[in-house]
Amino acid sequence: ESDTASEISFQFNKHKKTPSIGSHSSDMASVSSVSGSVLSVYSGDFGSVDAQGTVEFALDYDEKNREFQVHVSQCKDLAVVDEKKGRSDPYVKTYLLPDKARMGKRKTSVKKRTVNPIYNEVLRYKIEKMILLIQKLNLSVWHNDPLGRNSFLGEIEIDLASWDWSNRKLNWYPLKPRSLSAVNGVDHRGVMSLSIKYVPPGSLGPKNPPSGEVHIWVKDVKDLLQLRPSGVDSFVKCYVLPDTSKKSYQKTRVIKRDTNPVFNHTIVYDGFHTEDLKDACVELTVWDHEKLTNHFLGGIRLGLGTGLSYGISVDWMDSTQEEVAFWQEMMLAANEWIEGLLPLRSL
What we know:
Main location: membrane
Largest sheet: 5 strands, mixed
Domain C2: 51-173, 188-317
Number of domains: 2
GO cellular component, one term: plasma membrane
CATH superfamily of the largest domain: C2 domain
Subcellular location: Cell membrane
Shape: elongated
Pfam families: C2 (PF00168)
CATH architecture of the largest domain: Sandwich
Order of helices and strands: EHEEEHEEHEEEHEEEEEEEEEHE
């Protein structure tokens, strides 16, 4: 059924409320740092302010320095957020889509008490031109609130594949309301096909297996983000959280130049007591492999999504309804393969 079978022990002292978590895993540190930077393009409190006004900016690509430049000049006639005081404190934010995680956000300074802010700032991205041409630029304007409840003032989205790169002049563009994809929270990163199975201790005969086992069969992924014209060189990482030690870490081989990779890779974790299933979480993340650094593409977390692990509040116990239902079905059907098709997401 698979090209690789790995068996890893999942060992916790079940008498302790606080399991020991390894701190020496460089791979997990990488996961955490990337996950922490994956912020929503549309984070904040939108309030009831209607988008209005215009923004003046210019786009350029510096061939010598391989740098994409967004020259943000100014805005005019923005919406007033604080009507009592008649003020807005606007700033401009940009993302490159669809992979906002990889390129991150850039933003200007905040201009206080004005609906006609002047910035004259350049937002820069180090990126190859061929990768840039399969991206979209999302430029949005926000009111900065001291308490962090920022208000959306308008946006514009530009398909860089069809952009006229000979046009380096400053031009005015009308700000538009949020796009439908933003309202619905659409963040399509692909879909993973997999099966999971739980084998309780002694369910296959006396002391067979001696401890419980979780089997994870990663079959394939479809519609991955294409970071370069030739496709993507992807692989899957697996951890059983909260164990982030090297014993917990497993990965598939790299499938090159394919946005629909077939992995057919099985991992077996033993040392699973039945009561561990409510506190553990299987994290599967998909990465683009490059020589210097790997880029996060998306992932899933299989667990009960309670926010707690062994009585401790943790941010990774955040499974979606689909992921929770998949994990619960496995818990209720011992020794049976449970098949699933789950969307990848930002973690």
